[in-house]
Amino acid sequence: LLQHCWSVIQHDNLYKPSIKIPDKIKRQFYRIAAILEDADFEFKNSLEFLSIYEANYGAYMTAQEINDKINSLELVYDTAPDKSKELKLILRIVKLARAVEKWDLNIKLLTDFVNSNNSSALRELGLALYKYYAKNPTGTKYQQGQKYLEEAIKLDPEDTDALTCLGGSWKKLDLKRALDCYNRSYNVNPDDTYTGVNYFITNITLNKNIDILDYSLPAIKNIIKMSEEQISVGINVPWAYFNNGLFKLFSKEINESLHNYLLG
Q: Which Pfam families does the record match to this protein (predicted)?
């Protein structure tokens, strides 16, 4: 935005005038342009980090703090005059409960919203069901969780979280189906580290070779970059270190790989 504004000012005042602009003034314009470029870059970075924080704010809280927050939000929900209109509040609770793996709570809270036609509610309910009943992956409840995830994806085909969750539900049952989900998610958002890690590992496991690494260096470097950004703001630790270590290994940076594993 800053660069765009500056380009307009510069074009109108530096290039359009009929008079010859002295070199000294031109250099001043160029210095200002460089400062604004840096400012623009820092604004962009700050907004990206803010979006990462918003998506993972539970990661900045202790388990006790998360549970306390859940209890306070549940109290608000319990006193709501019309609970059917409180889906937004429920999703806030569910997001926190997911961070501490309270799958039974999420099942209880979301069951009443199955018919809400809300992709986020269906995704979180599907995830909670297959996680809570993970010991019986061929059971009815587990399979119902998968169905809810599929419904969520139909409502929002670009929901990478739902696609990745569905992939996770197939890992122990059908690696090909798992890889298909990870591949779809990765194509939507190659910057998502969780998707990227699962896509590469599942591909290598299924095909029993590492050929994919030979033509995926730019993608590997991108996952390393995103993992390092997570580390820099303290989220997804220690997994961000482990992911970074794995993909440093894939890019043949052995010492850096070991260093990240030690930090994790």
A: TPR-S (PF20308)
**Structural domain count of the chain:** 1
Q: How sure is the predictor about 30, in pLDDT bands with cuts at 50, 70 and 90?
A: confident
Contact predicate 6/32, CB 8 Å:
yes
Which residue type does 62 have?
A: T
Is position 215 within any domain? Answer: yes
pLDDT at 15 over 60: no
CB 49 within 8 Å of CB 233: yes
In the numeric block, which tokens belong to residue 96? 């926190």
Determine the distance from the C-alpha atom of residue 231 to the mean position of all C-alpha atoms in its chain, rounded to a whole number. Answer: 14
Q: Tell whether omega for the bond before 137 is within 30 degrees of 0, i.e. cis.
A: no
Q: Check whether 21 has a pLDDT greater than 80.
A: no
Is 227 inside a domain boundary?
yes
Tokens encoding 243 = 């992911």
Domain that holds residue 241: 210-264
Q: Which amino acid is at 125?
A: L
Q: In one letter, which amino acid is 80?
A: A
pLDDT of residue 233: 74
In a 10 Å sphere around its CB, with 0-12 CB exposed, 13-18 middle and 19+ buried, how is residue 126 labelled?
buried
Q: Is residue 246 one of the residues assigned to a domain? A: yes
The mean pLDDT of 17-22, rounded to a whole number, is: 62
Answer whether residue 205 is part of any domain: no
Token pair recorded at residue 94: 């569910």
Count of residues for the chain?
A: 264
